[in-house]
């Protein structure tokens, strides 16, 4: 790792990260990283478009539209254009509100805070697809490493790490696009640090998706301020009263800098086949498999018992959700929906589906057993039928995990299902092609403009 010129001691962590971001060359990106960036873009864009008319997004647009500035960037899946800061906010909200977006295998939802910022900036100042991909990859690298430096204690305290770490990803990525030098990039990270926020108490409400939207907006704003010479501490990450030590009692600064450039966190990304918390996916898989193999109906079932990791009950223990957003954090509803509908997409987590009398009855027949030694993405299901038959299934690796990933074709199918009510078929095909070939685009803003809807 680079040293300060006047000393043999390593540069402060914030400066080391800034130096890496500045010196990174897009021509050095491996082919598999570029392809993963296309996968991430396609998945993220589908989630944003699929939520374009969601109440959460509609309320945000209605609240802020009177304050939109120049029409610099597209609000995805909608007719409105906005200034880049508001576009980043709204598109960050829409990409996360379905809880269908990507998840790093350890912690953060990586794309929702980063891509809204870089796409808005790329559309306004006309950056190439290669520049956008490079910035996206670096933004994910920064946010994941910073997030892991305080994980899991930071998360256990109640911080929503997608918001708290995501602001750094947006700042890092947009600083790269703007071509900031090391000092200004360090300032941008510091401006991001002082805005880091997000509480887990908000899970199940509209505020959860506000976190990555706010992170995208604030990270982009941090880079724009730094570009003009707005200063901050250049030790914002590691200082005694900086991000790491204030927001965690177990801050590990080496996680941020060790091996920088030797690997890419984007390659540890996972994509959701189901529109809810990833920790429930294994038991959803188990229910879907048993339903398909035994032609199960809700009426035949006496009890459903799920054995899960402690994190499942910590995050998704709402036994009687009243809204679709609450349903995404109810393992009880997830299992009932899987049996009733044979699916766990966005439709199965709508408010209508959550309030379906069949779901309410079946949720009451679900019980949860916590197994402390079980991994968070593993699960077992035991279904007892009314005739006494017992069916069991153990899923070690849910669909969408690194061990059982969604294919490119799976992601395309997910994209089409999400956007079918938002865009015409011809445009859908164009967008899919643009995502797979984003690295070759002369103007990355094409992606955003293709994602506009007509009034």
From TrEMBL:
Coiled coil: none annotated. Signal peptide: none annotated. Residues 15-254 form the MmgE/PrpD N-terminal domain. InterPro entries: MmgE_PrpD, MmgE_PrpD_C, MmgE_PrpD_N. Residues 274-437 form the MmgE/PrpD C-terminal domain. This is MmgE/PrpD family protein. It comes from Candidimonas humi. The lineage of its organism: Bacteria, Pseudomonadati, Pseudomonadota, Betaproteobacteria, Burkholderiales.
